[in-house]
Write a structure and sequence with these properties.
Blueprint lengths: L20 E4 L2 E6 L2 E6 L7 E4 L7 E4 L4 E2 L1 H9 L3 E5 L6 E3 L9 H11 L1 H16 L8 H23 L18 H23 L16 H8 L2 H17 L6 H15 L2 H12 L3 H11 L1
Parallel strand pairs: 1-5, 2-6, 5-7
Antiparallel strand pairs: 2-3, 3-4, 7-8
Helix pairs in contact: 3-4, 4-7, 5-6, 5-7, 5-8, 5-9, 7-8
Family: Belongs to the CRISPR-associated endonuclease Cas1 family.
Subunit structure: Homodimer, forms a heterotetramer with a Cas2 homodimer.
Organism: Ferrovum myxofaciens
Length: 297
């Protein structure tokens, strides 16, 4: 019935070219004249209507006091734009449909590499080389993990010295994450933010989150693999910067400070776009392009 409306039924911008998230709250997400709009202050005499560029963003975060029409959901689904219902300040996410690009080449390539023990350890060594700046000669995963763990401890100390933060080691209590000291709390929140960015990058390429090359048990193993590539340059930068602000007297909650800092860093350094490029590099997708060209020839 709606085929042909504004020519939008065939338009779809790749998520790698979109602008990330848009936050809306206290209004109605609806469709007016074939376009997505957000009507704020609907019950007042002067409602404010904002046209939403749904094809130019990857996800709409719908905050408290908001509703969405059936027609809006249809439009979002057709153009691959996600929607999540979130709590105050985005602290809770209540629903988020999976991002499902219409492709399988990256997933098949990942499964091919993961399924071969020799190629799997080769990918793991490549990822460690990307992090550590050198190719380690070892081919045992536990040995590589031990070397990486030792170097991470050194990086923690160096980052603490750089930001003038007292550092007593990495501690994390899963049962009570707020029981740790300020820098450890900041690292926990920053790691969560970076993992969320990695999840977006993994899903945008339709890679398989469960098939990690370094992490194994988690259902987000590959997401954790990609997030770890940014631990030194992004996660710890955010965490220790926030910890310093708290130490000098900022009484804003640590999780809020981390979210604010992460949003600035992600935007300035194009973190998600960079992660997408790293995933392609890790999975050597250029080999797919070459083989495809050869078969076409």
């Amino acid at each position: 019935m709606l085929k042909g409306r504004l020519g939008l039924e065939t338009a779809r911008i790749p998520h790698s070219d979109r602008h990330g998230l848009i936050w809306l709250e206290r209004g109605e997400l609806c469709v007016i004249d074939g376009c997505l709009n957000f009507m704020a202050g609907k019950d007042s005499h002067t409602p404010h209507i904002l046209q939403v560029p749904h094809q130019a963003v990857s996800m709409i975060l719908l905050g408290p006091g908001s509703s969405v029409t059936h027609d809006a959901l249809r439009l979002l689904a057709r153009h691959g734009t996600l929607m999540a219902a979130v709590g105050v300040d985005g602290v809770r996410t209540y629903t988020a449909p999976p991002l499902m690009p219409d492709r399988s080449d990256v997933a098949r390539r990942q499964a091919e590499l993961w399924g071969s023990p020799r190629r799997r350890i080769s990918v793991a060594r490549h990822m460690y080389a990307m992090r550590l700046g050198e190719v380690l000669p070892h081919r045992d995963l536990d040995t590589l993990r031990g070397i990486e763990g030792s170097r991470v401890k050194t990086i923690y100390r160096l980052m603490a010295d750089k930001y003038g933060i007292e550092w007593n080691g990495r501690h994390y209590d899963r049962e009570n994450p707020n029981a740790t000291d300020i820098p450890n709390q900041a690292i926990n929140h920053a790691a969560t933010a970076v993992q969320a960015a990695a999840a977006i990058a993994v899903q945008s390429l339709a890679a398989i989150p469960q098939l990690g090359f370094i992490h194994e048990d988690s259902g987000q193993a590959f997401v954790l693999d990609i997030a770890d590539l940014y631990r030194d340059t992004i996660t710890l930068q955010i965490a220790f910067s926030v910890a310093k602000n708290v130490v000098v007297g900022d009484d804003t909650s640590i999780d809020r400070l981390v979210r604010r800092e992460a949003s600035v860093v992600f935007r300035k350094q194009s973190v998600i776009s960079s992660m997408i490029d790293k995933i392609k590099l890790v999975l050597r997708t250029e080999e797919l392009d070459v083989s495809s060209s050869d078969s076409d020839a």
